[in-house]
Amino acid sequence: MTSRPPYEVNGEGQSGSGGFGWSVLLREVSEGLRQERAELERQVDWRVLAEVEREIAAGLTADARRRLRERVAQRIEAARADHAAEDEEVLRFSVWFRIQHLGLMLSTLALIVTGLPVRFAETAWARVFFSSIGGVPVQAITHRAAAGLLIAVGVFHMVYITLTREGRRELTALLPRARDVGHLIHNLAYFVGLTRHGPRFDRFSYAEKFDYWAVYWGIVVMVGSGLMLWAPEISMQYLPKYAMDIARAIHSDEALLAAVAIIVWHFYNVHFGPEHFPFSRTWLTGRVSAKKMRNYHPLEYERLRHAQEAPAHEEERDQA
């Protein structure tokens, strides 16, 4: 789950979520040119400092030359360290998080591939699909196996967010908050040029929270209606006929909505956007570059940096 491309302005990581149009594209191009210019100026700065040191060193005392060389070396080292930090990768998602995502991805894609031909069974491509996989019985078995995997992932996730410290922390970060509404309004204003900077997100943006809770709701609806259709003989013993008709309509429409949302919204924002294309490796490695973390989730990045630097500062104080 991810948001729209970030825009880092005046050294501050700023993000946008959702939205399309030429204004967004122009902002992306402008930001890319700005970063290239900043990198060029930084490299020129190194060379200017070194040239100045060579030009004026002859007329300085030995102590002054030493101090000048130290300052030049410190400036160059700091610039190189900042550049190296841009490429450093930060662990964003644990292995348990990634396993759940993998199970969700595999089960959902299998359900879409085997379920949509049923909705459009009268079309020529659906008939080709059924004949190529061995008929409706194979489709039914595959679809139910994928449904079983989805149910297992859902049950595991419930255990994860309730019984593990990591899961409870993730759930807390995903809860909708009042500031998400403010971020949405701020972002819309940014997209139409009313503000210079986009909102600064923490671990999850409002778009990512929407992604999560949409999937959560989708699983409840799809599993509930799917179980009714899976065992109609049992369902009809307790429910009227119209309840089965409603379940069938809900199951079909929700499946189509999920397929469109995954392909159009999720795949573009996570994999096919210009800053990720051809795909993001985060779902495999759990890691993201420090630069992307600072741009997309600056508040979380600053918190992690502070946590890393705090022990070093304490050690320095102890030594002092």
End-to-end distance = 45 Å
Detail the poorly predicted runs.
1-20
Fraction of residues in H or I helices: over 70%
**Total number of distinct structural domains:** 2
Largest sheet: 2 strands, antiparallel
Instruction: List the secondary-structure elements in sequence, H or E.
Output: HHEHHHHHHHHHEHH
Class of secondary structure makeup: mainly alpha
Radius of gyration: 27 Å
Q: How many beta strands in the DSSP annotation?
A: 2
Query: How much beta, percentage-wise?
Result: under 5%
CATH top level label of the largest domain: Mainly Alpha
Going across the biggest sheet, name each strand in turn: 1-2
Mean pLDDT across the residues is 81
Helix segment tally: 13
**Fourth CATH level, the homologous superfamily of the largest domain:** Transmembrane di-heme cytochromes, Chain C
For this structure, the CATH topology of the largest domain is Fumarate Reductase Cytochrome B subunit
Give your account of this protein's structure.
By secondary structure, the chain is mostly helical. The protein has 2 domains: 15-87; 90-319, Transmembrane di-heme cytochromes, Chain C (Fumarate Reductase Cytochrome B subunit, Up-down Bundle). The chain is built from 13 helices and 2 strands, in the order H-H-E-H-H-H-H-H-H-H-H-H-E-H-H. Strands 1-2 form a two-stranded antiparallel sheet.
Task: Please give the structural blueprint.
Blueprint (H helix, E strand, L loop, with lengths): L21 H36 L4 H26 L1 E3 L3 H25 L4 H10 L2 H28 L1 H10 L3 H14 L14 H25 L1 H7 L2 H32 L9 H4 L1 E3 H7 L1 H22 L1
Antiparallel strand pairs: 1-2
